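pinned: reference chain
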Amino acid sequence: MKIQSVSIASAVQIAIEEGNAVKEISEGWTKVAQVVHMTGKMSSDTQRRIESEVPSLRYWESAATPQNPAAEGFISDQDKVGLSFPR
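pinned: its structure tokens
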């Protein structure tokens, strides 16, 4: 499945270069069109690189709930595509 945001695709490439991998790409969310889920946690180096190299993305984080594990990542508000890392 193709990533529907050039900015998120750039952030995914950074995460892969830092040793992470794509777990899955999901669609059908209410507030975003697509979410790229990564297998591993986001390192501080990965976060710094994404914030520096892809400044159009907005960082987000969420605590664990009974339905979902804790996560963090970035979103392209323009493209409505997200990037999610487990916390």
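why pinned: The beta strands are 22-27, 34-38, 58-62, 71-76, 81-86. The radius of gyration is 12 Å.
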